[in-house]
Write a structure and sequence with these properties.
There is one protein chain. The protein has one domain (27-99). Helix content is 76%, strand content 0%. The longest helix is centred in the last third of the chain and has 29 residues, at 71-99. It has helices spanning 7-20, 29-41, 45-66, 71-99. α2 runs parallel beside α4 (71-99) and α3 (45-66) runs antiparallel to α4 (71-99). The chain is globular. It has 103 residues and is mostly helical.
Amino acid sequence: MPYLKDKELRLYLNSILNAAGESLTYPGSINYFLFKFAKMSCHNYQQFRNLIGELESAKREIKRRLGKNHKLVKTIEETITKIYDELVAPYEDQKIKENGDVE
């Protein structure tokens, strides 16, 4: 869980988080940030699956380290639901129309 060997990448990502600072502590800001990231960076089904898998892994690690009731656990769960419902489900619906549903 999040281990980056590339020191330049780690410094860059840290600079983004430092610039965001306190704004990521406001209600909904983490959800917004992650949803916006999904919209900007995921361009196909596999990328959405990868992102949702990473978020699920992050949620599990937060539970393990900080406890199952930590506020980030619920935030990540809500974000995964929002990404799936608004970005992945329409793709699934289109594929059902094109190829037929599972019988």
